[in-house]
Structure formats: structure tokens, C-alpha cells
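Subject — a protein and its fold
Fields — amino acid sequence, C-alpha cells
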Amino acid sequence: MTTWKKIAALAVVVPLALTACGGDNGSNGSDGGDTGDGKLTVWAWDPAFNIYAINEAAKIYQQDNPDVEVEVIETPWDDLQTKLTTLAQSQEFGELPDIFLMQNNAFQKNVINYPDLFSDFSDSDVDFGEFPEGVVAYSTVDDVNYGLPFDNGTAISALRTDVLEEAGYTVDDFTDITWSEFIEKGEDVLAKTGKPLASGMAGSADLIMMMLQSAGASLFDDEGNPTIVGNEALIKSIETYQKLVESGVFVEVNSWDEFIGTFVNSNVAGVMQGVWIMGSIQSAEDQAGKWGITNLPKLDDVDGATHYSANGGSSWAISSNADKDLAADFLASTFAGSTDFYDTILPSSGALANWLPAGESDVYGEPQEFFGGEPVFSQVLEYAAEVPSNNTGVYYYEGRDAVSAAVTKILGGTDVETALQEAQDNVEFAMQ
């Protein structure tokens, strides 16, 4: 997940040399031809995170493969999904890139609905046993792997230590607390410093989804049926979000760029997101040493509530139009085969790996100056081990979007029961 709401699309060409070893880019990659043109094209979003990572992977791969050009085209997630849907419906598979990034929560739905867009990893050198089983499951359909897990979506609460200190607090004061305690302390910080503690996009249910998963709850039952109406954990999450907004502790903005700007420009004193947000945090070089991280507040009075959640996470897909052998070898040699690669991208982007061998690196335990000299990556790995599993369902995004619309109505005065009933009705209609 990762930052998927960027507005502009920009082609970033990386002229790197890697030896061609697969099929022609215009052929179906599942056939594994042998006339590749020595070029890989990649669709991904977020220059500070995903695109940075793929470029660094290309540099690593170049060391042993000196003859292929890698072209990375910045494609916001919403645009990428629209392109995939359009190409699947028009059968224009020749317009696909070799590799594209896919939100984990949308992976199964895309494979099931548009199987002709994907190549599988059956003949690759990727050892999927070296990834967490739950993460691999996002991109597995009928026991076939269609994606290579990339980033870890473990949620963090990142806070400006200098602003907290001005108000008489430390990060420890915001560790292992409830949301009601967070709001109370946040109101005090706001009164003393003029800075809210967090922000997010209006009309987005990101934070609510993190709250929901932190209690091991979901919008769907085990059979994939929506459970929006009467979902006590969801209702509590929405009520908590409403209190955050009304208190002024949480500020809503209109776009992803504005959201990033709120903490990069020091308008707010914190951010709650997947760990991948650390790449954007560190883009504000003047704030080095002024950030700390901790776990999330937990929901008050909800059975199973914890301080741990996740948001996003993504996996690399090889398209049906790919030079499949080259694409698979590239991914296997880097994202599923190089600790040097993960050691390179971790400090500057916060790209916490799902590839388990990477976590054994000493880099994970090193103090990070930007975050007050704390070993924040080993800290996040501890959080990751505590994240409750939940059932996303094939229609996760329809459910999330319906809840997002419901929250907007609730903040506008609609009663919770009415708004959630309408949300469930919309999801059930989409599932027909």
C-alpha cells in the first residue's frame, strides 16, 4: 500500500544493462520465448518507496547482468487498476508492462476476474517458503503463486519528539495507550503547541481499517459475505474516528499530496500509517532526529483489541505480456534473493521486507539517526509479529470504499446505523 494516491504519472527511465534471457516483450510470457529485447518495463507508484526500490534492485541486478534497460513508469495505484481493467476488457495484452505492482488487498480479485493479465511463478527460482504464509496468501489463487511479496505494511504511529517535548510529553507517553487516552493527550498537545497529532484524507477509511484490523475484525465473514451492519468493532472504530476529527487532534485534507505535506511541512506532529510512510517522512531532511515511532493506540472496550495493525503492503506481478524468464529472474535475484538489496533500501525508504532472510541482517538492528538514534526497524519487526490476521475478502476495496462514503455521511450528520446499512447494501449489489 504504500502511497497509492499520487496524482501525476511520470516515466522514469533507468538505462541499465542486464542480459536478455527470456521471451519477446510482445509475446505471452507464459510461453517463455527466447527472443527477448533486453528490456523490462515496470508500472509502480510512489517515487520515495516503490520506484526507489525497483531502481535499486535494477542496480543490484546489473552487477551480474550488464545488458538490459529497465523502464519504470510512475503509475498511481488507482490509475494502474483502471489500466488493468481496461486492457483486460479490450484484450489489449500487448499494452501491459513486464512487471507491475499490485496492492495485496486487490491481488486475488484481479487474478480471479482477469486471469489473462498474469503469468504465474511456477517455473521461477523464488522460494515462497521464505515469505510469511499470510502474506503469500494475498497473491495465491488455487495454490498458484501470481505475486512476489514486497513491502511489509505493519502500521506505526510516528510522532515528532520535539513537539511532544514542548507539550511535556515523550513517545513513551503515547505507547500502549487507548484511543481515548490518545485523544485526551492530543488535545493537550494541540492546546500547547497548536499542532494536531495526525492527519488523513477526507473520504478515506484508511485509519478506520487499521483500527478494525487491530482488533482482528473485518468487513467480511469467512465466507466472504459483508458484515458491515452490526459490526461492533467497525462501529467503535467509526465513533473513535469521529471523536478524533471533532477534537481537532486529527486533520482531514483533500488529497494524498496534501496529506504528505501536512507532516513534511510540520503542520501536524505525527502520522499513523503503514511502515512504508517512513520513506515520505524522511524526505523532510530538516526534521532528522525529531521523529520517534511507537505502536498504535488500541480501541476502548472492544474484545480482542490490540496495539498492532497493518495497512497496505504490495506484491510484484509478472504480466502475460512479459519477457517472463527475464522478469522472474530479475525478481528472484533481488526481491527474493539479495540481502544487499534490502540493506540498501531499508534505511532511506523504510522498506521493511517480507522476505524473511532480509530480517536477519544487522542493518535491522542499527540505530537510525533520523528517528532519534533508535533501532526502529527491529522495533517494527516486533510489531509485525503481533498484527492480528483478518479476512479481507475478494471485495475488500468495494467494502472499504463503501465504508469511506458512510463515514463522510456520518460526519455530515447521518446516523451510523443508516449509513452502514446503505454501505452494506452497496457492497452486496457490487457482489451480484
The chain is about 40% helix and 15% strand.
